[in-house]
Amino acid sequence: MYELRPEYAGRLLECPACGRQLRAGPAPGTGQPAASQGDPAFDRDVFLLRERVLTIRSKYEVWAADGTPILYVERPTYPLRTLVAYLVGLVVGFVVLAWLGGVAAAAGPLVGPLVMLLAVPATAFVFVVVSMSLRPLRHVTVYRDESRAEVVLRVLQDQRVALLTRTYTVLASRGEPIAKLRKTYIHNVVRKRWYVEALDGRTLAMAIEDSIVLSLLRRILGPLFGILRTNFVLVRGADQEVVGEFNRKFTLLDRYVLDLSADPGRTFDRRVALALGVMLDTGERR
To answer: What does the radius of gyration of the chain's CA atoms come to, in whole angstroms?
Structure first.
């Protein structure tokens, strides 16, 4: 038995006596840490995400802090099926617009203009619903390596049509759900945020844009050639305790750092944190 500092709780360590890899237990009174027990790939505080370019699928290589590759991530885009969904949405939208035009013409000079005024938003609504209904679900799969022989994590898109709120289910390696990710589109108008929820609906953490001032500048000026790149802070609790950051590095290519050093006890599940990091990029089209 060895007495260790609290920051070693839950980590894989080498026994100085026998040389075996053993996982350190929690500090007395703290309970078991929630993070990724049993899989050394998630047994760390810093993840480096590098998106591959010139690929049809969204692909990421996940590295350790020392540059060692540890995981491989894919999220399909289905460009042809998405294009077909948009075309069908346009066709249905124009049919609805033509029908409303006929209704307006037959309604007379008083009601007709009102019908035409409502025709444009109605057509846009039909286009959005039809195109989203036909678009394929884009699930995220995290593999052990590029061979894609072993799945270690999945993020399932829960619904095709999401006008106000979209949710995702995070599955562990054996397929059991471990958390929910949720974003509400109306929040993105001012400051982007994502919620991490337990399966019973409790909010476990939140990822929010790093600054309200920078958020407003990004809405007005855009990314400004990467100078106003979108970074997120991971917080939890009523006092919004910071447990990590998700930052885009200032490079021409997409490079991200998921840093959870502010949570040395690893009470925030690293599997869920990595899933959140991938969605903060692909889910926000950054």
So the answer is: 23
Over range 160-175, report the average pLDDT: 92
Nearest-angstrom CA–CA distance, 166 and 186: 11
Q: Are 242 and 233 in contact (CB under 8 A)?
A: yes
| Separation between Cα atoms, residue 60 and residue 184, nearest integer Å | 25
**Residue 127 shares a structural domain with residue 252:** no
The rounded Cα 67 to chain-centroid distance in angstroms is 23
Number of residues in the chain: 286
SS3 assignment, position 278: helix
pLDDT tens figures, 174-215: 899 999 999 998 877 778 899 999 999 999 999 998 877 767
Phi, psi at residue 170, to the nearest 5°? -95, 125
Look at residues 224, 156, 166, 161 and name the one whose alpha carbon lies nearest to residue 192: 166
Based on the domain organization, do 128 and 242 belong to the same domain?
no
Tell me which residue range forms the domain holding 24. 1-32
Among 65, 46, 59, CA closest to 148: 59
pTM of the model: 0.78
Last residue of a domain, one of 107, 135, 163: 135
Residue 177 belongs to what H/E stretch?
strand 177-184
What is the model's pLDDT at position 52?
79
| Amino acid letter, residue 104 | A
Which of 192, 74, 84 has its CA nearest to residue 138?
74
Amino acid letter, residue 107:
A
Residue type (1 letter), 33 = P
